[in-house]
Amino acid sequence: MRSRRTVAERRRRSGLEIRLERVDLHRAGRAILRGIEWRLRPGERWVICGENGAGKTQLLKLCAGAVWPDPASAQGLQYSKSGQPIDPIEALAEIAYVGPERQDRYERYGWNFTALEIVGTGLTRSDIPQGPPSSRAERAAREILRSFGIASLAARRFLTLSYGERRLVLVARAVAMQPKILLLDETLGGLDARNRARMARWFARGSWQIPSWVLTTHRREEIPPVATHLLELDAGVVRAAGPITSLRRETLPSVAKATRTARNRGPVLVALRAADVYLDYHHVLHEVALEVRRGDCWVVHGANGAGKSTLLRTLYGDHSVALGGAIERRGIRPGVPLAAFRQWCALVAPHLQSDPPHGETVLESIVSGLRRTIGLDGAPRADESRRARAAARALDLEQCLRRPLRELSYGQVRRVLFARAFVTRPRLLLLDEPFGGVDLATRAALRTRIDRYVAGGGTVVMSSHHTDEWPDRVNLELELQRGCVRYRGAARSGTR
């Protein structure tokens, strides 16, 4: 039997090479990438870092063929195999890309296939299942799920999975395609400690099957030890590139841990009483009891699939509580519409940026927060525009107001969602993994904004996997485990 090293060497020799020579990329007249000089050789494993808007995602999309260079520099993007140039169409068939947009696509189209079926679409290189899989294909799909440590999810429907579980399933799907190059855009964002460990094991033991891979990240601790090279982008320009041993990992600085603040609590704004919540007949939350009072700053944490997103969206009113339990909202009595609650409650969540209306600008998106709608049914009024511009100014978005939302980076859109929430001047702010895909500077700025909001009397319920993301004014903590409350009370120092 051939050794793993022999197989890996054979795959490396037959791998695909990408070369970029002075490549430029403009979108809507704006320079995204400028004079990019970069070479990805078979066997190399790159980490790409840089702030939001630096061009990381667009560089991966350029390699994957989702966008194309400016015509004047198009000849600078070249693919080759075994030293011989190959046609881009042939090359792109050997590249797999996994990013937040791919994940959002399943939500947008309601593709609620099982995890096993989705991995099977990687084997057939199709978006949706092409009929029942053969026994051989099913065995292969199960083995790939097993290699990521998520075989237990095989029969679960995709849209019932947590954000992190969905991400692992899509990486497994990409691996099933047996690509020569695997492009992973912020793949480790939104994963809990257990799933980060699963990905770490795959990088260490399983990624040898892929000749080359590229990972974007904002966190130093997410750099896999097996990575070989590091590329730093700054405003669309390559600032540094080379072997990771010769570059400073401090390019990705860490954040200081938050302190905890105790304070008096005000009246109840929203409460869950013995709440059970079902999604697609799957029992997600089990008899959850929670009181959120004015001035509270809660952090909700737990493993992927614990029910954090479901809890927040239940508080907001997207999901209902089953008979036998109850949800109570201040001022909302029978006959009072839920819209009255949403006049003083705002939500920031990944699903809100999955499918913005076509052509919607940053200004229009922020104004839609004032109207509590997705998209606008009419042009912004003068008073709405004034408030939207003020919210954008507070989050350093003024220069983006006229830009279409689809042209922004994932992290930049997250800042727009914060502006969309704060423009409503909410009493209660619900934040679902709010710092996913944002860089260090943006994380620090948003944490400061949240702390100021709480200091001014606002109330926050926020989910997070990282204690360095907790606002300084966090005073309460809820830990979920498989939909049940494991801990509820004062925030504990050093919680993971």
What does this structure look like?
By secondary structure, the chain is α/β, with parallel strands linked by helices. It folds into two domains: 4-251, 3-Layer(aba) Sandwich (Rossmann fold); 268-490, Rossmann fold (3-Layer(aba) Sandwich), CATH 3.40.50. It is built from 14 helices and 19 strands. The protein has helices at residues 4-13, 56-64, 88-92, 100-109, 115-124, 135-147, 163-176, 193-206, 308-316, 338-342, 362-371, 382-394, 410-422, 440-455; strands at residues 16-27, 30-40, 45-49, 77-81, 84-85, 95-98, 181-185, 212-216, 229-234, 237-243, 268-279, 282-293, 297-301, 326-329, 345-348, 428-432, 459-463, 476-481, 484-490. Strands 6-7-8-3-9-10 form a six-stranded mixed β-sheet, sandwiched between helices. Helix 5 (115-124) runs parallel beside helix 7, helix 6 crosses helix 7 and helix 11 crosses helix 12 (382-394). The longest helix has 16 residues, at 440-455. The radius of gyration is 23 Å and the shape is globular. The model is unreliable at 248-262 (pLDDT under 50).
Put the structure in a nutshell.
By secondary structure, the chain is α/β, with parallel strands linked by helices. It has helices spanning 4-13, 56-64, 88-92, 100-109, 115-124, 135-147, 163-176, 193-206, 308-316, 338-342, 362-371, 382-394, 410-422, 440-455; strands at residues 16-27, 30-40, 45-49, 77-81, 84-85, 95-98, 181-185, 212-216, 229-234, 237-243, 268-279, 282-293, 297-301, 326-329, 345-348, 428-432, 459-463, 476-481, 484-490.
